[in-house]
Amino acid sequence: MTDVVPDYPFEQPNVLEPPREWAETRAACPVAHVRMPSGDVVGLLTGYEEVRGLLTDQRFSRNLDREGAARMSTTEDGGMFSRPAQGQVDNKEGPGHRRWRRLISRAFTVKKMEAWRPRVQEMADALVDDMVAKGSPADLRAALALPLPVRVICALLGAPSEDQDKFARWSEVLLTLTRYTQAEVDEAQRDFHAYASDLVEHKRAEPGDDLLSELTQISDSEDGRLSHDELISTAVGLLLAGHETTSNMILKMTAMLLSERERYEAVLADPGLVPGVVEEALRMDANGGVGIPRFITEDTEVSGVPVGAGSTLFVNLHAANRDERKFPDPDRFDPRRENNAQHLAFGAGPHFCVGQTLARVELQVVLGTFVRRLPELRLRDAPETLRIREGVAAGGFEDMWVTW
C-alpha cells in the first residue's frame, strides 16, 4: 500500500465521464487501496476478470455485518451492507440465500417480466402525455425517470402508487454514504419495515393479481414457503432496488444520447438499435455508485496479489465495464458492439440482479417512446452542468432538464 490512500468514490470530470483513477488503478495493480467515506481503507477491484471472478466465488461474503469488516458510510452502522437484515433473515448468502433465490426466481422469469411490457408502455405514454401538456422545458427526473419505475414496482407488488414519495425518501436515506444521520436511517428503516409488513399481511389475507401476492403463495416440497420476515425483506429490497437504480439509469442513458447528438440521431434513424443502445448505455455508465463489497473469509489471491482473510474488497462494476481487455476501445459508444451485453451492470454469480429483465424492459420502453414521440428531445443545459447526487451509494443526477 502506498503512503497516500485516495478517497473513494473518486471525483469525476463530469457526470458522463469516468474518473481517471478507474484506468489508472486497473493498469497499476489488480487490487488498489482506497479510503471509504467512513474512513476505513478497503481494496478496490476495477478489472473485468477480477471483478467477475470475485462476484462468482461463493467463498467470499457480501455481508459486512461482522467483526473486522470495513464500514462504508459515515453513519454509526457503517452503511447498507453492514446493516443487519430486517427481521434477521438469513438470506444474504449461503444455503439461506440459495433457497430464497430458488423461490423468488419463479416470479421473475423472462416470460413474466416481458408480459409487463404493455403496462410499462401505458405508464410511460401517460407520463410523457403529462410532460408534453405542461410544456417545454421539463425536469425529466421529476416528470418521468422517477415516477415510472416507482409506478411499475408498485403495480408489480400491488402497493399503492400514491405511496411513491415514501419509497423514494426511504430508499435515498437507506443508501446514504454521507448525506443522512444514523437517526434518519433508523427512522427510515423502521418505517419501511412497518410498511412492508402491513403490505405482506394484506396480501396474505387478500391475495391479488400481483407479484407479492404470488410470493405469499409460492411453495416447494424441498424449500417450503417464504416466511413473513423473508417476504418483508423481499418487499423492501424490491421496492428499494426496483426503482432507484432504474430511475437513475433512465437519466444517464438519455444524457449519454443527447450529449452527443449523433447517438440519438442514429437510433431515430434505426429504432431497431434500441436494445443495443440500452446495453451500451448500461456498459458505459460512468456514475454507477460506490460498488459492491465482499468480505474475504480466507487467505486468497486476486491476479497474483495476496489478500488476507478479514479484508474487505469493493468491486466497481462500471469500472470493469471500461476494461479494454474485455471491451476494445471501451470509451467509444457503439450500440452494435458484439459483446456489450456481457457487461457487469447487473452483477454476476449468485447475486446477479433478479430484476434485470424488468429493468431492461423499462429502459427499452422509455427509449422507444422518446424515439417515437420526441424526436427533437434535447438537453436544456450543457452536460457539464449536470449535478451528481452527492452522498448516496446509488449515485445518479439531482435533476435533468430537457426541451423538445
Automatic annotation (TrEMBL):
<dbReference type="InterPro" id="IPR017972">
    <property type="entry name" value="Cyt_P450_CS"/>
</dbReference>
<dbReference type="InterPro" id="IPR001128">
    <property type="entry name" value="Cyt_P450"/>
</dbReference>
<dbReference type="GO" id="GO:0016705">
    <property type="term" value="F:oxidoreductase activity, acting on paired donors, with incorporation or reduction of molecular oxygen"/>
</dbReference>
<keyword id="KW-0503">Monooxygenase</keyword>
<dbReference type="InterPro" id="IPR036396">
    <property type="entry name" value="Cyt_P450_sf"/>
</dbReference>
<dbReference type="InterPro" id="IPR002397">
    <property type="entry name" value="Cyt_P450_B"/>
</dbReference>
<keyword id="KW-0408">Iron</keyword>
<dbReference type="GO" id="GO:0020037">
    <property type="term" value="F:heme binding"/>
</dbReference>
<keyword id="KW-0349">Heme</keyword>
<dbReference type="GO" id="GO:0004497">
    <property type="term" value="F:monooxygenase activity"/>
</dbReference>
<keyword id="KW-0479">Metal-binding</keyword>
<dbReference type="GO" id="GO:0005506">
    <property type="term" value="F:iron ion binding"/>
</dbReference>
<feature type="region of interest" description="Disordered">
    <location>
        <begin position="72"/>
        <end position="96"/>
    </location>
</feature>
<dbReference type="Pfam" id="PF00067">
    <property type="entry name" value="p450"/>
</dbReference>
<comment type="similarity">
    <text>Belongs to the cytochrome P450 family.</text>
</comment>
<protein>
    <submittedName>
        <fullName>Cytochrome P450</fullName>
    </submittedName>
</protein>
<keyword id="KW-0560">Oxidoreductase</keyword>
